[in-house]
Design goal:
Helices cover about 30% and strands about 25% of the residues of chain A. Chain A is an alpha/beta fold and about 325 residues long. Chain A has a domain of about 80 residues. Chain A has an eight-stranded mixed β-sheet with strand order 6-7-8-3-9-10-12-11, with helices on both faces. Chain A has a four-stranded antiparallel β-sheet with strand order 2-1-4-5, with helices on one face. In chain A, helix 3 runs parallel beside helix 5, helix 4 packs across helix 5 and helix 5 packs parallel to helix 6. Chain A is globular. Chain B has about 325 residues and is an alpha/beta fold. Helices cover about 30% and strands about 20% of the residues of chain B. In chain B, strand 1 and strand 2 form a beta hairpin. In chain B, helix 4 runs parallel beside helix 7 and helix 5 crosses helix 7. Chain B starts with a strand and ends in a 66-residue tail after the last helix. The chains are: A alpha/beta (about 325), B alpha/beta (about 325). Chains A and B meet through helix 5, helix 6, helix 7 and helix 9 of A and helix 7, helix 8, helix 9 and helix 11 of B.
Chain lengths: ~325, ~325
């Protein structure tokens, strides 16, 4: 049930279309996001899963205003996105990027990387900035003497901690985490995930957690949004999605993920083929060409999200 | 003569370094063997030496590397004493390799046809048109529909999964006895990952080919390979039957690696994960004694000196007995 008093972010009928321009050829429309609806509560984690090309990173970019949206409405604490000043916006919503090797400026020291959000957006004095940076470094598990080092002195996990510290400097309420641990080794992943959980408690953060790693998403999220080719195919609580997935794509995604402890099932479903091009979407359900349960009707029209067994699912055949 | 296809005893790999007078010791005393038609999973994090070992087996480590071994025999031949001309026969002919990122492993300026045919002609004594027919056949074998059209494609026209299939087609074109797959699916989506791993597994069984499957994902190994070895900081730390090792890891590193995965054991969501503190030591700062001792929770005084032998598949003086829970 939606509780508007808890809601911090709501997205209504969001569309994002890119124009693909080619010389002497008609401009093509690439539908990166079609009709996305969801909301995020305070202190909640919404996991977004899907394969490459499903639009999860585009969604992150639109939510952080790195890309303008084409259609639809986003509300941050009840205020429309367009009506928030850029300063207010950045102090409410921040992002942590996937690759800690590319998202930190190699020519800046850790101190400056973390201090920049404060310097740009606030009038904090130099001394106070320094103190705040040191306090934040300690919070994310970096030693104070690291402050004058450059990014190349840090390991992958430490760099991701730097990225998290930078994102937290303006004390945002929402963090968008775009594959925050994918570039890290397994033993380091657990350290960073634990840090994210601690910080969520301490700063009462809401997370949008984007990942292709289903075990990680299951562990971190309260609710899950499953995307396929720019559309939401299933949207529900963690337990609904993981214990009883209804959409064939969700089922296949869960089935395909390699697990160390698995009861060998005899009826493994595998998926045919690969993701079709977003420039040339099928007329009906986008998953129909690969779906093992497809019926002739699936080719005719696009299934809309309907509430089935307490969660939203976009499939004619799911009940 | 042994029946093993590959027999490696005490492989050591060093790198000369400008900064240090002492060469960097990247792989230490690695021993393992592989039977014809067998798959071996190799698990390890970055810096564990798993890729360097593969490059040594392919003979493509640069001049800065010093490779030493008591034995490094492949198919009855000593690899380390091969001359460059002999290496060229082995490399790509008898041992083939596929890489992590299929998009950068293919030459972007050449068509798929050129690249596959080139490989075939380099190793097999057949005509160009025969080679082209063989290429079509191979593409069909790796599950590419309309192979004739695909032959004319350039790598950028292929998806990641398709490019990896082309790489596999190229690798098996010469009928290798050993296929080294170095993180073959890390760059791919899970549904495509499953397709590719199933393909490698079926080729292994059909062609009676041995496979070394390198990955950082214990899930991949446990589903596809019966035998596994875990590497850490240039050493083999644990080896054995995959399902036993995953149920009952004896080395604290394997234990930590397994329990740091969110899905490894029943655990409430959003509760802290068991994690391994610290990071893999850099090559030039390797500890004395057990390589894992600075991060190990069960460390004792004797772990910090001498070299630790492998006993019953575990390189640990105080192996763990309890099962993962």
């Amino acid at each position: 049930m939606r509780d508007l008093s808890k809601e911090i972010l709501s997205v209504d009928a969001l569309h994002k279309t890119y124009d693909i321009k080619k010389l002497f050829r008609p401009t093509l429309k690439l539908k990166a996001l079609s009709d996305i609806n969801f909301h995020l509560d305070k202190k909640e984690t919404l996991g977004i899963v899907g394969e490459s090309g499903c639009g999860k990173s585009t969604l992150a970019k639109v939510l952080t205003k790195l890309e303008p949206r084409t259609l639809g409405e986003i509300n941050l604490q009840g205020i429309k996105y367009d009506e928030i000043s850029s300063h207010d916006f950045h102090s409410k919503i921040q992002m942590v990027f996937q690759d800690p090797y590319q998202s930190l400026n190699p020519r800046k020291k850790a101190l400056d990387i973390i201090a920049d959000p404060l310097r740009i957006n606030t009038n904090t004095s130099a001394n106070e900035t320094r103190d705040l940076v040191m306090a934040m470094m300690k919070k994310v598990g970096l030693r104070e003497e690291f402050a004058l080092r450059y990014p190349h002195h840090f390991s992958g996990g430490q760099r991701q901690r730097l990225g998290i510290a930078r994102a937290l400097m303006l004390r945002p309420e929402i963090l968008i985490l775009d594959e925050p641990v994918s570039a890290l080794d397994v033993s380091i992943q657990a350290q960073v995930l634990n840090l994210l959980l601690e910080l969520q408690e301490e700063f009462k953060l809401s997370y949008i957690f984007i990942s292709h790693d289903l075990e990680v998403v299951q562990h971190m999220s309260d609710r899950i949004l499953v995307m396929y080719l720019g559309r939401v195919v299933e949207y529900g609580s963690r337990d609904q999605i993981f214990n009883n997935p209804l959409h064939p794509y969700t089922k296949i995604l869960l089935e395909s993920a390699p697990k160390t402890h698995r009861e060998k099932s005899n009826q493994a479903i595998t998926v045919k083929g690969e993701l079709p091009s977003a420039l040339n979407l099928p007329k009906g359900c986008a998953f129909e060409p690969r779906c093992p349960f497809a019926k002739p009707g699936c080719k005719e029209s696009i299934p809309l999200l309907e509430i089935k067994q307490g969660r939203e699912v976009a499939c004619f055949e799911a009940h | 003569m042994s029946e093993n296809l590959l027999d490696i005893k005490d492989l050591n790999i060093f790198f000369k370094s400008d900064k240090n007078p002492e060469p960097i010791h990247a792989v230490r005393d690695l021993s393992f063997s592989l039977k014809q038609g067998e798959m071996l999973g190799v698990v390890g994090e970055s810096g564990s030496g798993k890729s360097i070992t593969n490059l040594a087996l392919m003979g493509i480590l640069g001049d800065g590397a010093i490779v030493k071994a008591r034995e490094c025999s492949f198919n009855g031949r000593e690899l380390l004493s091969l001359k460059e001309r002999e290496w060229q026969k082995v490399r790509g002919g008898e041992i083939a390799m596929i890489f992590q990122d299929p998009m950068t492993a293919l030459n972007p300026f050449l068509t798929v046809e050129f690249q596959i045919v080139e490989t075939i002609l380099a190793h097999l004594n057949i005509s160009k048109s025969e080679a082209k027919n063989k290429a079509i056949e191979l593409l069909l074998q790796v599950g590419i529909t309309s192979p004739k059209d695909r032959l004319k494609s350039y790598p950028f026209e292929l998806s990641g999964g398709m490019a990896q299939r082309v790489m596999i087609a190229m690798a098996i074109s010469t009928g290798p006895k050993l296929l080294i797959a170095d993180e073959p699916t890390t760059a791919l989506d899970v549904t495509i990952q499953k397709q590719i791993l199933t393909l490698i597994k079926s080729l292994q069984e059909k062609n009676n080919m041995s496979v070394i499957l390198v990955t950082h994902d214990l899930g991949v190994v446990s589903e596809f390979s019966e035998r596994v070895q875990v590497m850490y900081a240039g050493e083999l730390v644990e080896t054995g039957n995959t399902s036993d090792l995953i149920k009952n890891p004896h080395h604290p590193y394997t234990f930590g690696l397994l329990s740091s995965r969110p899905g490894a054991v029943e655990r409430l969501a959003k509760t802290p994960l068991a994690s391994i503190a610290g990071i893999v030591p850099a090559f030039h700062q390797r500890p004395v004694g057990c390589q894992f001792n600075p991060r190990c929770v069960h460390v004792q005084e004797d772990c910090k000196k001498g070299s630790i032998p492998i006993e019953r598949g575990v390189r640990c003086l105080h192996p763990m007995m309890e099962a993962l829970s």
